[in-house]
## 1
Amino acid sequence: MSTAQLIALDLLATLLAAAGWVGAGVAAAARHARAALALLVVAVVVTLARVTTSVALATGGWWFAQDRVVLTGPLLGVAGLAAVLVAGPRLLYAVRAGTPGNSPTAVVPLLVAGYAGAAGLLFPLLVGYPATWGDVLVTVALVGVAGLVTWRVAGSGPPLWTFLPVLAMGLAGVGAGFATGADLDAGGGPTAHHPAGHGVSVTDLRGPTTPTPGGQVRRYEFTARTTTIQVGGRAVEAWGYDGQVPGPPITARQGDLVEVTLHNADITRGVTLHWHGYDVPAGEDGAPGLTQDAVPPGGEFVYRFRADQVGTYWYHTHQASDVGVKMGLYGTLVVGPPAAGVDVTLPVHTFGATTVVGPVDPPAAAPGTPVRLRLVNTDGVPHRFALTGTAYRLVAIDGSDLNEPGELREATLRLPAGGRYDLSFTMPAAPVTLFVDGDPGPRLGAGGGTPPPAPEGWPELDITGYGTPAATPFGPESDFDRGFTLVLDRGIALVDGTPRYAYTVNGRAFPNIPAQLVREGDLVEVTVANRGFDTHPWHLHGHRVLVLERNGHRVTGSPLWLDTFDVQPGEVWRVAFEAGNPGEWMNHCHNLAHAALGMALHLRYDGVTTPYHGAHGG
Ligand code: C2O
Ligand code: CU
């Protein structure tokens, strides 16, 4: 059983346990002693079952079970045991003697066990990992207050002053919550060395102004503006770079200098350009509030970087990026040389309910022509591609070539939000169709005719076992200078000062997630675990990460250098990178709606400072 299924099963068991205990209490209060006794037995059985699910969860990773083991399990265990010992004999006696069995000594302990069960259900949904001392105190106090109130309502309650210690405990817990406010995570490495305010500013970490010898300057001038575009025959309000959606494609050769002057005509929320997957100098990264201020209407910003990485990338606004990218502020960045034959870049973007592939259809390709399709997922959710009519190879992921990728046929390719896949094949005599999420998309080769049947039941390619291993500069056994753990979930947290049902990292949301501190040259390991029910495409700016393990299994195929990896519910990814690009960097979920709801943090190089404050992570 997968961890995601276990999480669901555990929550179901907790729900049933809570319902069983509450039901037993209600039945007892309603003078149905026999029913109460039966429900008590059910509650005990389900509560014990929950012990099993908690232990099973712990084997998938401590993060998945910590709250169950240190807090909600013991709480329900103690309350349930008390209910069995106190209410059990009374209910038994009532059944035998034919009396109602509705005395408070029977009812109240059963209901308290029910409250403890409810806490076990709500805690993982509202708080999650890690359960802190403050959380423990608050949770126990809440169950305690509910129990005392019930007891008094039931008649023979304790004096009012008994509430005081319980309330004090709750307040202490709240206080403890406020007190734990580290804003830096050194990942087990040395802490900050440079005193605050001393060091290099991100604004000084700018790109060169000349190409490498022999390269060219690729100069672009983009004006972001509101516009109207046609999607599936409908006029749709959009925002575009140069009024175009996608924005003008940027192409370059390795060694060229890319220079883009960004203007903003009328996007009132402001715009930037972020080079997704491209490890530009920090000052060119386009992260508002961190590396620059967003460009307001009438403003401009000039970006410059050398096209050192070959491959398929994309650019997008990083200001109010959830809205901005959805509205159309994105485009492709491909660093060549272009492949021989047909080389076409197909960004996939969803407008409302319509998923559009590529700004234009691929050009005609005669049989025998080599074809390269560069797929770019510019949406916040994964897309599933299938290529029919030909065998092909997945030759590059996120701009990095794979080592000896094998031939694929009848496979489904799941492309994470923000990610890129390059597919390569030789054009056969019959047409080739690219399916997107089960629907026929662009078609190459002899036009017309009926579209081929949709591929059904084609297995999903596991990229961690595709291609052939090759040497990497570091690997699972390396000695890491620092290690960070990011546990992704949902929960109540402050997002920009407002309590929200946020997307959280280690129980907190932007900007309260401690920044990760590294030093230049560090080898850094990052573990990302997903406790929630959403997929989180994790994206670190300025660095490629090497995948070490997924769910405890090492990569057995080609090395995977990714900038966006899809952490699905219950999954645990272990990745690593070399800290070789000094700056302050965003590190966030690329479902940009999740980032806007808190799932974003910073990676900070010791000694790098930023003069910008306060803009949102998403
Ligand atoms: Cu593609 Cu922080 O983004
Ligand atoms: Cu997410």
## 2
Amino acid sequence: MVKIEGKSVFGGIAIGPVEILKKKDNQVLRRHVEDTEEEVRRYEAAGDAAKKQLQNLYEKALTEVGEASAAIFRVHELMLSDMDFVDSITNMIRTQNVNAEYAAAITGDNFSTLFESMDDDYMRARAADVKDVSERLIRILSGEGQNGIRGNEPVILAAEDLAPSETVQLDKSKILAFMTRYGSANSHTAILARTMNIPAVIGVDFPEDCDGKTAVVDGFSGCIYLDPDPEFLKMMTERQAEEIKKRELLQTLKGKENITQSGRKVNVYANVGSVSDVVTALKNDAGGIGLFRSEFLYLEKDHYPTEEEQFQVYKRVAETMAGKKVIIRTLDIGADKQIGYFDMEHEENPALGYRAIRICLDRIDIFKAQLRALYRASAYGNISIMYPMIISLEEVQRIKEISAEVRGELKDAGISFGNVEEGIMIETPAAAIISDLLAEEVDFFSIGTNDLSQYTLAIDRQNPKLDAFFDPHHPAVLRLLKMVADNAHKAGIWVGICGELGADLTLTQAFLDMGMDELSVSPAMVLPLRQIIREIR
Ligand code: PEP
Ligand code: MG
């Protein structure tokens, strides 16, 4: 048995024969053409055919994997019509008298190199898309067909990399798992694998002679086992059966309401920390995103993310959620989340220090860049904004002034934005105690029980020695939750929980009794929570 480690993209266990996806040789030859206008027409006809193919693919993906994942084929269509892309191909044909295949190949290479050199992860991941688009054009121009799986037996598909269009065109019923040597966890292929519910592992250095061999793919750990020992195979077969049973049971809850037996409804949303988590949230049928921790955008960079970089990410999230609510929390760094380029001074008590909204109200430039990006992105979906670590009415009033300034500036510049709900996190005892006053100023409350417990109980949530004392079921915490819920409702606004406690299934009944309107939990907890809610009388 040989064990190969990769990076998990989607969990699950698959057992079966490996098939290495053989791609057709797409080497494109440069030919001299005399009649360049005729060649341009040939290219334009291929472009039209490619658009038709993409429209068909969009329809197919729409029914198989849903709107959010199908959208990539709309992006490919846009790339095909992009004027820089089109001009590059037609100019090459006209000025260098080359064939359309060659012009498309060079243009595809140049554009994908350009995307690859960009700082933004999302834009870098588009390099594979533009390559995919140019290869489609070349296939049509040269009359070639698609790549595919050879036999009728379901296989573990091994490939160097997979383009999104290849992935969706493969017959899903014949794929047990994907493993690729390259590819990024943010790519649409990875997203599609997750959405298609197929175990997937990337970064797998599989040997060329594994074609036809039996393998076990452990999508949870990201490990592949070639030629598994009989005992290991038996153990994994049993684990697979258990996983399937568990998943099947929860899957039956998809599309169902989060409603108790007595008819009380509650929104179940997901907490996410990255763009790829958003897809996992959708896959788990979350009703929306209840907490998008925007700090990951700052943590993964070595510079302040620009307004444009942020805008692209927020827009993508809003579009991916296709109209469902997306609550984005403004920057919450400091304490345990330190960022080198912020150059923060050493603090004796960082959890009680310079963090979150305190930094934003001190560094208005950073705050405004984020708010502008958020408001701009709100034109593309259902975005709400939420402010962390609030302790006073003055803070909220100052935030509202700044946010009004941002809206005014965007309006003056003719930049459109949507109707954005603005809420605050209740995660300090101060905010909970004055929640009657705060409720008059905002559209919603989301209770951050991780910090609320830390500050109420005076226990550092980072200190493992204090784990035994850290009790979020403490009556002081629960009383504060009830008080916040009552104050929210008195003022006519909604209230939810986005801290870890929201996923504590032993408290679901208590939260509903308190009147919580929303519970936001990690994506994998959405369906288990739905199950509990539906069992409550
Ligand atoms: C919380 O404090 O409960 C919360 C959701 O925020 P974070 O865990 O990111 O501090
Ligand atoms: Mg917090």
## 3
Amino acid sequence: MALILAIESSCDETAVAITRDGELLSNIVSTQIEVHRKYGGVMPEIASRLHAENISVVLHEALEKANVKLEDIDAVAVTRGPGLIGALHVGLQAAKTIAMLYNKPLIPVHHLCGHIYANEYNEKLEFPLLAVVVSGGNSELIIMKDHLSFEVIGETRDDAIGECYDKVARVLGLPYPGGVPIDKLSKEGEHTYNLPTPLKGEHTYDLSYSGLKTNVINLVHNLEQKGEKVNVPNMCKSFQDVAVGLVIDRIKKAIEEYEVKEVVLGGGVSANSYLREEVSKLGEKTRTKIVIPPLWCTTDNGAMIAKVAERLYDRKLFAPLTISVDPNWRIEDYDKF
Ligand code: KG4
């Protein structure tokens, strides 16, 4: 256990958290959502610039709130990947600068480990477990037989589920990020549009969202060409049933095959109310514990990076200052850099 400063900048949140012996002292998140909204998605170059502008301010605020000085910390942790290359670089350079100036160990953290371990702010993980990380950039099903042991059994073959929500929202004229408005409107709609289930009939834990996105776009354009009005709540409900249904199907199969003690959700899409409902029902039916992160911890933040870093600190998994970011870092290689 130690005093950890953790930096996260993999996408569109500049975030710094400080933990002492596992206790969260500060967790400052500066989100860029408003800026990216007008483009209907994250613009990588703008994201990097905003991280560069914000990182010192966020760092300062986190230190002040925690009443901690940089010389007091035991280690500096940072998200090394996966994520946007320029965005990751800003966080890593800040972390390296602190490590070098104050002679502190540098701990590179895998972003998806962060989404999984965020749940430890609520309760301890129990193994074997199935981790389902669903976000704007990732959709993965991971079996963990112990702490920091990861076996990816399924992942998206193309787009991430959150990315699909955001693109479907854009074609329906809904604001970015699209997850929340689609989730909300689905509650007012009915499943009336026929959208094919991706990878139907295939024996796989993989996911696929590119075809589903194209199906919605084509359907909307066809209706518009015929002069018919799209019923937006019904389209949201029809889309959400298929998008979330695919994840639920994979979870159901994995519970049976791997006999897991619990299913742990993580990532921005784990805020989805339909997913939370359906996975909870599945847990009751199969007598499997379902661990759902607190809402504040579903989107990117430094607290989740600090939670992983505490374990890596105990294992002395420190990196040399020569390391670089890895936008495609695989979770199985979380200790290779
Ligand atoms: O984890 P996150 O903050 O960023 C990445 O690491 O990608 O996830 C953001 C994603 C966005 O695509 C957003 O639309 C989606 O999470 N999201 C949701 C909901 N809230 C956020 N998707 C479905 N339902 C929601 N309620």
